[in-house]
Amino acid sequence: MTSKDDYILATLKILIIGESGVGKSSLLLRFTDDRFDVEMAATIGVDFKVKQLTVDDNRVKLAIWDTAGQERFRTLTPGYYRGAQGAILVYDVCSRDSFRQLDRWIAELDTFSTKMNIIKMLVGNKIDREDDREVTRDEGARFARKHSMLFIEASARTREGVQIAFEELVQKIIQTPALWQNEQKAKENTINPIDDDNSNGSGQGCIC
């Protein structure tokens, strides 16, 4: 018998997108495993992790997809936008070019997303390198307001802002029932012969 504490409100698909080298995989690793790997290699194709998160007394299961930022992998990613309820767009506060490229990423998200009201969170990463900063916090905040996005600055290295970025994104998704309620009801009415016995922890896989 499933207790109230074990009840999963919804399974949410979250995308992490942005230019190569901005720290997408490091943010994901910090959030799911609370680790930081200085020598983490660039993502090839798409990596994913699974993690449960409780926000406002609601427990959800997150399937988080980390996409490659390199141009040569662009053809691999369109299908992974399908069905996503949330997207984290990442730029490096020490790279003006990664900030300029955000318009392209938003255009791609708007093109391939199958949910018109997908929740977007803008994350300015690497604030631990303040001396190398090229993009101000105010610039990031203005860009986020322009595109109706949530916004936070963070550091995967120091943990600052990472947890709250995911929590605020999930909170906003939960507050938008049209994003997830119908799909959740469909899943509850479907018998899945393969259940994930390890859903209380984080999972990892790679599709290349």
UniProtKB/TrEMBL annotation:
Family of the protein in this entry: Belongs to the small GTPase superfamily. Rab family.
Cited PROSITE patterns: RAB, RAS, SIGMA54_INTERACT_1
UniProt cross-references to NCBIfam families, sorted A to Z: small_GTP
Source species, domain of life: Eukaryota
Record keywords, A-Z: GTP-binding, Hydrolase, Lipoprotein, Nucleotide-binding, Prenylation, Protein transport, Transport
Protein name (Swiss-Prot/TrEMBL): small monomeric GTPase
Any one GO molecular-function label of the UniProt entry: G protein activity
EC number, as in UniProt: 3.6.5.2
Reactions it catalyzes: GTP + H2O = GDP + phosphate + H(+)
A GO BP annotation: protein transport
Pfam name, any one: Ras
Biological classification of the source: Eukaryota, Metazoa, Spiralia, Gnathifera, Rotifera
InterPro entries registered for this protein in UniProt: P-loop_NTPase, Rab, Sigma_54_int_dom_ATP-bd_1, Small_GTP-bd, Small_GTPase
